């Protein structure tokens, strides 16, 4: 038996062991270094120019990473991690990536010191469980019957790192009002805040301070014709998903005509079909017709005569929200089981009034007083597109955070308080274990300190000194019973001191912190598990066959 049989020939390059780990860790460090400087209330923004020259200026970790088009497979895990955090919590995307990369770096050092990855992984898992337990038992503050103040503080904390931090008082109120006004109770009796029902419209001009909250769902299109009324009340809304144009024959249908007079009849019938459809709509009592497709001039004429508002080319997404808010059904075709065309009045949605207003230079159709959930729109004003886009991202983050706070009812102090407390606690925990995991947990505890460190560095403060002070406070809080209140000590990045962040109003929902730790650990473990990488070479000659 020859030796070559044991090493099968792989058409590609294979790297294994330490090389792969080091490479993966380097890639993840590179990704995390990109977003590192954008963390915290004094974080800086990134300017991204894509391949066609569009500029995005943003501070949102998920957005930055999404636009980077990362090639490296391990770094891709971090990008997906940020997107997951964005979906699940909505904020904290930057922190997740930084923590994950730091955990990896620490783990790599341990592996170099001859500690097996499996021990590290089990240590990390244990540390993660303990950390989440500790947050939920010791660090959270219940916000019973949430007044508005904690909510506004959460929103402000979430906005502090974004472009609008200067006007955070103003925007925090807007956000909290918006979330509170979409409150609804589902079938199971749970109270939910569907923030999808908050429509964000961006309009140029005026300053950011002129943004406001509109009660009603705003559609970013005008009426289809000028002859239509400006307002209809009470409104019966039909949501359609097909063309209201002169019906043409389907492609491939040929009609052979012997008598030229028949042609005229066919044309007439084609025109009448649309007319009949519209009459069915109006007969059912509809006075507002929204459609995702077009309506041609002939059809508009009937609507104008009936005094109804018709809006064409509405975005599918808007359509769904309107249908949900008004209790309408999206109708894709008039055909019923018998092959006849009917329109059931039950498909209509109701609203108190539908008006067209001018906002900036655009005509906007507002649907007010909807039947089921109250829909609201945030109208953002701002100087230019970049600013408006960034404002929208910032508001999306704070909307999510307020929603999470309301649904989970628990908050923790921000500004590195939780991370320092966990670090002190886990370090103490590590010394009580006699197994291999001890080292992994100690490294996990150290890795969490990256958040306060980066916060301090971004604020141009002395990180080493501040973090040392912070840990001293938390150590006191955990050892002396009468100093429990020190557990919410965090960084004050404006003055470069330590303060009680719960009292200063720098708070975040506890769920956000727990998720950050869970997701970051999971991602780090995923990448740590890899010890072999085989890159296959594309074979030539496949394309010819």
From TrEMBL:
Gene3D superfamilies: GroEL (3.50.7.10), GroEL-like equatorial domain (1.10.560.10), TCP-1-like chaperonin intermediate domain (3.30.260.10)
Keyword Chaperone set for record: yes
InterPro entries associated with the record: Chap_CCT_alpha, Chaperone_TCP-1, Chaperonin_TCP-1_CS, Cpn60/GroEL/TCP-1, GroEL-like_apical_dom_sf, GROEL-like_equatorial_sf, TCP-1-like_intermed_sf, TCP-1_chaperonin
GO CC annotation, single: cytoplasm
Record PROSITE patterns: TCP1_1, TCP1_2, TCP1_3
Keyword Cytoplasm: yes
Compartment annotation: Cytoplasm
GO molecular function per UniProt: ATP binding; ATP hydrolysis activity; ATP-dependent protein folding chaperone; unfolded protein binding
SUPFAM superfamilies in the cross-refs: GroEL apical domain-like (SSF52029), GroEL equatorial domain-like (SSF48592), GroEL-intermediate domain like (SSF54849)
Keywords of the record: ATP-binding, Chaperone, Cytoplasm, Nucleotide-binding
CDD domains xrefs: TCP1_alpha
Similarity remark: Belongs to the TCP-1 chaperonin family.
Function: Molecular chaperone; assists the folding of proteins upon ATP hydrolysis. Known to play a role, in vitro, in the folding of actin and tubulin.
Protein name: T-complex protein 1 subunit alpha
Native source organism of the sequence: Raphanus sativus
Organismal lineage: Eukaryota, Viridiplantae, Streptophyta, Embryophyta, Tracheophyta
């Amino acid at each position: 038996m020859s030796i070559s049989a044991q090493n099968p020939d792989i058409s590609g390059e294979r790297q294994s062991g330490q090389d792969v780990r080091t490479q993966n860790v380097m890639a993840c460090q590179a990704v995390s270094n990109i977003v590192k400087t954008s963390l915290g209330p004094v974080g800086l923004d990134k300017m991204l120019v894509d391949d066609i020259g569009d500029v995005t200026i943003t501070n949102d970790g998920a957005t930055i990473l999404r636009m980077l088009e990362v090639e490296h497979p391990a770094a891709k895990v971090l990008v997906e991690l940020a997107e997951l955090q964005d979906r699940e919590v909505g904020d904290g995307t930057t922190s997740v990536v930084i923590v994950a990369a730091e955990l990896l770096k620490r783990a790599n050092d341990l592996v170099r010191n001859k500690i097996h990855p499996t021990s590290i992984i089990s240590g990390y898992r244990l540390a993660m469980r303990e950390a989440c337990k500790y947050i939920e038992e010791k660090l959270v503050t219940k916000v019973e019957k949430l007044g508005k103040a904690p909510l506004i503080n959460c929103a402000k904390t979430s906005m502090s790192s974004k472009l609008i931090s200067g006007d955070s008082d103003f925007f925090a109120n807007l956000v909290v009002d918006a979330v509170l006004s979409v409150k609804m109770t589902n079938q199971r009796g749970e109270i939910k805040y569907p923030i999808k029902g908050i429509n964000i419209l961006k309009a140029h001009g005026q300053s950011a301070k002129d943004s406001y909250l509109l009660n009603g769902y705003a559609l970013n299109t005008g009426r289809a014709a000028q002859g239509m009324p400006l307002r209809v009340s009470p409104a019966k809304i039909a949501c359609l998903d097909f063309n209201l144009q002169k019906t043409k024959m389907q492609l491939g249908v040929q009609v052979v005509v012997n008598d030229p007079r028949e042609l005229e009849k066919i044309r007439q019938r084609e025109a009448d079909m649309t007319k009949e459809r519209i009459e069915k709509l109006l007969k059912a009592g509809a006075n507002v017709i929204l459609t995702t497709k077009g309506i041609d001039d002939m059809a508009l004429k009937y609507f104008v005569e009936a005094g109804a508002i018709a809006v064409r080319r509405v975005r599918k997404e808007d359509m769904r929200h309107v249908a949900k808010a008004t209790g309408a059904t999206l109708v894709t075709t008039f055909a019923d089981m018998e092959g006849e065309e009917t329109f059931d009045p039950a498909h209509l949605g109701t609203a108190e009034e539908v008006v067209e207003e001018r906002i900036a230079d655009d005509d906007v159709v507002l649907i007010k007083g909807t039947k089921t959930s109250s829909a609201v729109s945030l109208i953002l004003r701002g100087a230019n597109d970049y600013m408006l886009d960034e404002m929208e991202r910032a508001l999306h983050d704070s909307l999510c955070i307020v929603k999470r706070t309301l649904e989970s009812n628990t908050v923790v102090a921000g500004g590195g308080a939780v991370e320092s407390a966990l670090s002190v606690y886990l370090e103490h925990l590590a010394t009580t274990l006699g197994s291999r995991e001890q080292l992994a947990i100690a490294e996990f505890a150290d890795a969490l300190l990256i958040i306060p460190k980066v916060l301090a560095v971004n604020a141009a403060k002395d990180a080493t000194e501040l973090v040392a002070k912070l840990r001293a406070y938390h150590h006191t809080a955990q050892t002396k019973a009468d100093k429990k209140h020190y557990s919410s000590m965090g960084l004050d990045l404006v003055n470069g001191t330590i303060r009680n962040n719960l009292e200063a109003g720098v708070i975040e929902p506890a769920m956000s912190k727990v998720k950050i730790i869970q997701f970051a650990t999971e991602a780090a473990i995923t990448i740590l598990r890899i010890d072999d990488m085989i890159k296959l070479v594309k074979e030539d000659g496949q394309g010819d066959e």
